[in-house]
Specification:
The structure holds two protein chains of two kinds. Chain A is α/β, with parallel strands linked by helices. Chain A is built from ten helices and 13 strands. In chain A, the strands form three sheets. Chain A has a six-stranded mixed beta sheet with strand order 10-9-8-13-11-12, with helices on both faces. A four-stranded parallel beta sheet of chain A has the order 2-1-6-7, with helices on both faces. In chain A, strands 4-3-5 form a three-stranded antiparallel beta sheet, with helices on one face. In chain A, strand 9 and strand 10 form a beta hairpin. By secondary structure, chain B is an alpha/beta fold. Classes of the chains: A alpha/beta, B alpha/beta. The interface between A and B is medium-sized, with 17 and 19 residues.
Chain lengths: 281, 535
């Protein structure tokens, strides 16, 4: 049996892609005050952003329970499939702890929990890459070796019209200096070593997108082997603009440019109207 | 007839010439300031010229030279370090050329003096990228040529300089014909006027037998449009030096320096005093002290910089930024955006090459990006950049503080690289900038009649006026292309209030769809609004 790939809802996988590649997705929780929803299951993306825009109580997220992971792993274990479980950076969420706690229930079975040190489209690139290897008959060790290589070569940049969402959720990491300045700015974050770092500031969002595209393309040595993931929080037109910028800057077409719409758990921290680009290879 | 004449000028004579010219320029500097060409009323030519020649004089006094070569070299050095503004840099180049010409001489006859003047003007021309006729260069050229012709038969310095001043005056009267912008504004060139004043001062000092009337002094062309406000800032420079051969005791020195800073310490006696002070104006401190003795072992440290290095975790980068800004608000914004040293161009003394050199030296990084933010400060910046040692100073030719902010953002996006000056200038230029100010006098500009006291908009070289300040800002925003959307930023000047800026911003938002409008305090004294548009 092929190796099973498990991830969490912060990978912002398109459900059709997850189904096609047989990836199991464990949802985080999105909370509006006392109300608690399973990300993407009980709360759809459109409904979430509409509710966020309506104002009122600000949403928060919480990691899945260990039980949720145990429940996700159980059918795979029973099918005698080895598991690689790839998750959002441990510096951004405790999800991977819940995953490894869930894996404890199957101590006789091989379940590898892997910290992607990234999130959203970046995590998506790692997960879909791993799933394709698994589909083509790759073993656990082979997949893990590839994941390590991808993790070492990945880059992520995002531009935020309002950094307060990230700050409120405590996900600002080493980019704290970007808030509290005199001029209102568009903040550019780099995801590095699993957390947010200050990359730069721009005066306008359009300039911020230029800077993000410049930064991402600067790391692409061989476009034909590069996989890029563009993410947006309820702003498909902005994502389209970013893809356009990337295409214009790349010397030849990239192997892959996937556009994903961030779900509620990423949306809580990014706030609406943000966009980013992640790359591996 | 006078009882005696001057036919040979040695080092002491040169010092007296310089003192007389400096005195006269000091007396009439405001007249020169007021001639400073419309439209932008940054009227500081006279002050800049005075401070530059004063720098030369102070250095010559320190040199105690009897030979003219040594005295001229000291004057050239002093003016170079004291050079403020374009005219100051031109004067310092003239003095440098003069000094080079007389470098082997003990004393000058009129012919030597005239040749050295011509060499001085040639040196100044060579230093300018594009010498413009109708400015101080034309006036100085006419004066030097006249001196040369006269010196072939005239041995008396009084007659030589009288002839020079006459020709210089005539050249000055021609400047509006040479430079249309002067004609439209109805003034003669300010730098040229300062030049004539300087020689007029020498003339009046010399014993002569001609009637003491030349075309001067002129009447002021307009009154100042703004009053300098007292500004209080935290003191940033820890300044220490030893005053040798002091002509005062510690108590007197303390009284002299007390108003210039805090944490003042003066110790010692018997001709040697050690001084420690925290100040924003190390140059004023040393100048005040220099009048009372010889300043040695000067050490100026930027405390803000030290503080930052010790306390604040900064992203490591290979470069630092020195910026010149025209107001307290801009200064805060620039510091906030990470500029290591922010100099103010709106201080009472103007900005000297020395200020910029000191600032660049206080940056720790090996590459310094220098943002002059004013076309009039570009020469000063380049001059300073050439004098800084041990660091590579790159002058980014930003034309105003809004452009500079564009360059800073471009730098911030490349924190780990060393972007080229061209890249940064392109980033600055991608921003459309305009301004609204209060016209200082009646004038014609680009075919538009502007009355004194009228709010005037400026976009590129185009002027417009719409009566009220709000309507003028709106017209400027439209002319800048605001109707195509983008981010419009208003930086309001010292004379505007926050609620005025808020009202104007609100009106812009209402009347121009798809335009994001933000407003900040710039604090600049010479305009009501600096406006930038970015996409």
């Amino acid at each position: 049996m092929s190796v099973a790939i498990v991830t969490d809802s912060t990978a912002d996988l398109d459900p059709a892609v997850a189904r096609e590649l047989g990836i199991a997705v464990v949802p985080l929780f999105v909370n509006f005050g006392e109300q608690r929803f399973l990300d993407g299951v009980e709360l759809a993306r459109e409904a979430f952003f509409a509710r966020m825009a309506a104002g009122g109580v600000l949403p928060s997220t919480s990691q899945p329970t260990a039980q949720a992971f145990e429940d996700a792993y159980r059918p795979l274990v029973e099918a005698k499939r080895e598991i690689v479980s790839v998750h959002i950076s441990a510096k951004l969420s405790g999800t991977i702890n819940a995953a490894s706690a869930g894996a404890q229930a199957f101590s006789q079975h091989r379940i590898e929990c892997f910290d992607s040190q990234t999130a959203t489209a970046g995590l998506g690139l790692l997960v879909t890459g791993a799933a394709r290897m698994a589909r083509d008959g790759g073993g656990v060790d082979e997949i893990l070796a590839a994941l390590h290589a991808w993790r070492a070569s990945q880059h992520g940049y995002a531009v935020f019209p309002d950094l307060n969402h990230l700050a409120r959720g405590g996900r600002l990491g080493k980019a704290k200096a970007l808030i509290g300045g005199i001029l209102r700015i568009v903040a550019i974050i780099e995801v590095k070593d699993g957390e947010a770092h200050e990359f730069g500031k721009a005066r306008t969002f359009s300039r911020g997108l230029d800077d993000v595209a410049d930064a991402a393309v600067a790391h692409v040595m061989h476009p034909e082997r590069a996989r890029l993931g563009v993410v947006h929080t309820n702003a498909p037109q902005i994502a389209a603009g970013l893809v356009e910028r990337l295409r214009a800057r790349l010397p030849s077409p990239a192997q892959e440019i996937t556009v994903v719409a961030a779900g509620p758990s990423i949306g809580v921290h990014g706030g609406p109207g943000a966009a980013g680009v992640f790359s591996v290879g | 007839m006078s009882a005696w004449t001057v036919t040979l000028a040695d080092g002491r004579a040169l010092r007296r010439f310089l003192a007389a010219g400096t005195f006269f320029l000091r007396k009439y500097r405001q007249v020169v300031n007021d001639l400073n060409v419309f439209p932008v009323p940054d009227g500081d030519t006279g002050s800049n010229m005075y401070l530059t020649v004063r720098g030369a004089l102070l250095e010559v006094r320190k040199a105690h030279a009897s030979g003219v070569a040594e005295a001229a070299a000291a004057a050239a050095m002093g003016s170079l370090m004291g050079a403020r503004g374009n005219s100051g840099v031109i004067i310092s180049q003239m003095l440098r050329g003069f000094a080079h010409s007389v470098r082997h001489k003990q004393a000058l006859e009129t012919f030597d003096f005239a040749v050295a003047l011509r060499d001085g003007v040639a040196a100044a021309r060579a230093a300018l990228l594009k010498p413009v006729e109708g400015t101080i260069i034309s006036v100085a050229q006419a004066a030097a040529d006249a001196a040369y012709k006269l010196s072939l038969r005239e041995a008396d310095f009084y007659h030589l300089i009288a002839g020079m001043v006459k020709q210089a005056n005539e050249a000055l009267e021609r400047t509006p014909e040479q430079l249309p912008v002067l004609k439209e504004a109805g003034v003669v060139d300010s730098g040229g006027t300062g030049f004539v004043y300087f020689f007029e001062g020498i003339l009046r000092f010399l014993p002569g037998n001609l009637a003491r009337t030349t075309a001067f002094p002129r009447r002021p062309q307009r009154s100042a449009v703004f009053s300098a406000k007292q500004r209080v800032e935290e003191h940033r420079f820890c300044t220490e030096f030893v005053l040798e051969e002091s002509r005062c005791d510690d108590r007197r020195l303390r009284t002299e320096l007390d108003s210039l800073g805090d944490s003042l310490l003066v110790i010692g006696g018997e001709g040697v005093l050690k001084v420690h002070i925290h100040t924003d104006e190390p140059e004023r401190v040393t100048a005040a002290a220099a009048a009372l003795g010889r300043v040695t072992r000067l050490k100026v440290d930027n405390m803000e910089r030290q503080h930052n290095v010790m306390v604040v975790e900064r992203p490591s980068k290979p470069w630092g930024v020195v910026a010149v800004v025209p107001g307290a608000g801009f200064a805060e914004i620039y510091r906030d955006l990470g500029a290591e040293v922010v100099l103010r161009s709106d201080g009472h003394a103007g900005l000297s090459v020395r200020d910029v050199v000191l600032a660049s030296n206080s940056v720790l990084e090996p590459v310094v990006y220098l943002l002059p933010n004013d076309p009039n400060l570009l020469l000063v910046a380049r001059e300073a950049a050439a004098l800084v040692q041990g660091r590579e100073v790159r002058v980014v030719a930003t034309r105003d503080p809004a452009h500079g902010i564009g360059a800073l953002f471009a730098l911030g996006a490349r924190a780990h690289e060393e972007p080229s000056v061209e890249e940064l200038e392109a980033a600055a230029r991608s921003m459309v900038v305009g301004s609204v100010f209060l016209a200082g006098k009646d004038a014609m500009f680009g075919g538009i009649a502007i009355s004194r006291g009228e709010f005037t908009g400026l976009v590129g070289s185009e002027m417009l006026t719409e009566g009220t300040i709000d309507a003028t800002v709106l017209a400027v925003a439209r002319r800048m292309g605001g109707e195509d959307g983008g981010l419009l930023t208003l930086y309001y000047g010292a004379a505007q209030k926050e609620r005025d800026a808020e009202r104007v911003a609100q009106r812009l938002r209402t009347e121009i769809a798809h335009l994001e409008v933000q407003y900040y305090y710039g604090g600049q004294p010479n305009s009501e609004y600096v406006i930038s548009l970015e996409r």
